[in-house]
Amino acid sequence: MKKKFWGIFMILVFCLGLYPVVAQADDGQTVTDVKNETELNAAIADNAQVRLADNIALTSRLVIPNGQSVTLDLNGKVLSRTSDKDGAVILVNGKLTVQDSAPDTPHHFTVDSDDLWSWDQNETAGKIVSGGIITGGKGGTNSVDAPSGGGVIVDAIASDGSITDASFTMLGGSIVGCSSDLGAGVYVSCGTFTMDGSAQIIGCVCNQKTTERQGAGVYIGGGTFIMNDGARIRDCVIRVYNSYSGTYQGAGVYACENKSKTGRFIMNGGTIENCKIDNDSTGKGEGGGVYLASEGEMTANGGTISGCSAFHGAAVYNAGGVIQADTPNGGTCFNGAAVNYGQISGGVYCDKMANMEDGTISGGTFHGTVYNQVGEVYNPETGNNEPRQGKITDGMFYEKVVNKGIIDGQGTRWWKARDNKE
Fold first, then answer.
1. What does the pLDDT look like over 302-314, one tens digit per residue?
2. 72 Cα distance to chain centroid
3. pLDDT of residue 65
4. Which SS3 state, helix, strand or coil, does residue 250 take?
5. Strand-pair partners of 129
6. 10-42 in b/e burial notation, b at 16+ Cβ within 10 A?
7. Judging by DSSP bridges, how do beta strands 78-81 and 133-135 pair with one another?
């Protein structure tokens, strides 16, 4: 009798090991625990709340289809893409929320010569990142999937060209050590990406030898990126290969237009730190922290950008977009040099600012020297270069303004700079 009991018991144990375990979350909703890629894909197909019960190495990207809504609890585990096939870790066409119920679980990462962080599966050496991890994605020219996007792709463009409501909300966990030409950490194509809580993007690198390397942390193409208190983007890098001509822009965040939709970055809080455009001996790098293309827009409500570096615009490079804030003289603190070819009406700038010939400052607080520049801009209608002048109409200026352009605004407050204006 005892032998028969143990035989039945072992059969049950074996069967339970083959199928996902279903549990109940604190809010009463069903949670499916998964241990491998097959179980994970099956749970995603059921619109489930999914929890990783083990580290999972994906042989192909995990897809959240349009119309599906999934919550993924990393649970302190590692979700990785196997190295034999290039491609992103996750593609979001529907709605994905990532959280982490075991944020103190340590994982080890080594850093290579390109500054790319790689997971040490033996967990014995390198830098420690705690909590659940998404890692190993590799976009670019050799990708078997979409050409761009390393960690997570948020793609709201349907097969018929229409725009869906694809969204990715990251409440915890970290995207670490992913690479691509564009959007090494997260690539947003007309969708919405929100970072909140303890979410992080760490050690992601644009290292493909292509003509464009942009957005090592986050690339926003016609979508929206919302960064809230507690979120961090750090140690993301764009590698410059001087034998390759091209653009190297936005090591932290890059924003541009796509499908006639403005790329929007709303920074309510959080930090962008130690992001850089590296090995740049030819002066091509623009925007260590943030780069805004002419159709890019940043709402700089809070948070800090610090310790970032680039040949031009260590903190921010505005190539013709808009930087605004809900509070005109407060908001995001830009620690590092700034370059403006567009419009600035908000934010706090703690280092020098170059307001170029196409730039307009109509608000914001400036604690470093402001250089209001003059230059020439090509007019395609006449075929000639025409003189332009940077313009200042409002703002709070605490240091010297070196003026070669236009200062025209009764609202401009010079404070200490009043006697130092040139």
1. 999 999 999 999 9
2. 20
3. 93
4. coil
5. 107
6. eeeeeeeeeebeeeeeeeeeebbbbbebebbee
7. parallel
> Tokens for 421?
């204006």
Instruction: Go through the chain and tell me how many residues it has.
Output: 422
Tell me the one-letter amino acid at 50.
Answer: V
The pLDDT assigned to 85 comes to: 66
Share of the chain above pLDDT 70, in %: 87
Query: Could you report the per-residue pLDDT of 326-378, keeping only the tens digit for each?
Result: 876 679 999 999 999 999 999 999 999 999 999 999 999 999 999 999 998 77
User: Are the C-beta atoms of 233 and 271 separated by less than 8 Å?
Assistant: yes
Q: DSSP secondary structure string, 280-318? A: -SSS-EE-SSEEE-TTEEEEE-S-EEES-B-SB-SSEEE
pLDDT, one tens digit per residue, over 61-111 is 999 999 999 999 999 999 999 766 678 999 999 999 999 999 999 999 999
Tell me the C-alpha distance between 104 and 125, whole Å.
17
Report residue 417's pLDDT band, with 50, 70 and 90 as the boundaries: very low
Kindly state the tokens that stand for 176: 């670490």
Candidates 201, 238, 244; CA nearest to 317 is 238
3-class state of residue 43 by DSSP:
helix
End-to-end CA distance of the chain: 98
Task: Please check whether residue 404 is in contact with residue 355, taking contact to mean a CB–CB distance below 8 angstroms.
Answer: no
Structure tokens at 66: 């349009």
Tell me how far the alpha carbon of residue 399 is from its chain's centroid. Answer: 32
The residue whose two tokens read 């200062």 is: 407
Q: Which two structure tokens, joined as six digits, stand for 74? A: 């990393």
| Cα-based distances in Å from 182 to 20, 178, 214, 252, 324 | 35, 11, 5, 12, 25
